[in-house]
Amino acid sequence: MRKIDMIIVHCTATREGGYFNTADVDRWHRERGFKEIGYHYLIGLGGEIWKGRDEEIPGAHTKGYNSHSIGVCYVGGLDTKNRPRDTRTVAQKASLLKLLKELKKRYPAATIHGHKEFAAKDCPCFDAKEEYKDL
Ligand SMILES: [Zn+2]
Questions:
Q1: How far is the CA of 66 from the centre of ligand 1 (A)?
Q2: Each residue of 68-114: pLDDT tens digit?
Q3: Which of 58, 61, 94, 113 could form a disulfide with 71 if both were Cys (CB 3.0 to 4.6 A apart)?
Q4: Class of 6-131 per CATH?
């Protein structure tokens, strides 16, 4: 078992309303030289919770933190003019919360973070640490 002490939230940095799934993200990540999709979970626009990379395999999502974290990503993160924005749909918010609660149950020592805490990026375009601090 990997030792997990962080759950890190991301966005796909795609325009709001753009429908993408794990096959798309898997393709983009392979094009960037990753072995497969870098996230462990992807939340679709309709609130779908899709599995990505196996939890037992380190992800490829947050440089320097992959070995001991789980990477969770929602589809979206940009407005129609490609500016960073919290584009989570009501269904995505509900599914993200559900998934994070479930992960916290399995990894009680893990703290929840947003990618931007570890990189000069806007990802996931909202304050995940603050929003989920009581989970
Ligand atoms: Zn990210």
A1: 12
A2: 999 999 999 999 999 999 999 999 999 999 999 999 999 999 999 99
A3: 61
A4: alpha beta
Instruction: Answer yes or no: 107 catalytic.
Output: no
Mean pLDDT of the chain: 97
Q: Provide the residue ranges of all domains of the chain, joining segments of one domain with +.
A: 6-131
Query: Does the pLDDT of residue 1 top 90, yes or no?
Result: no
Which of 93, 104, 121, 129 is catalytic? The answer is: 121
Question: Residues, the chain, total?
Answer: 135
pLDDT for the residue 2: 92
Asked if 88 contacts 25 with a C-beta cutoff of 8 angstroms, the reply is no
Burial 89-114 (b: 16+ CB within 10 A, else e): beebbebbeebbeebbeebeebebbb
Q: Which of 11, 39, 41, 61 is an active site residue?
A: 39
CA dist 130 and 107 (Å) reads 19
List 40, 61, 113, 115, catalytic entry: 115
73 is catalytic: no
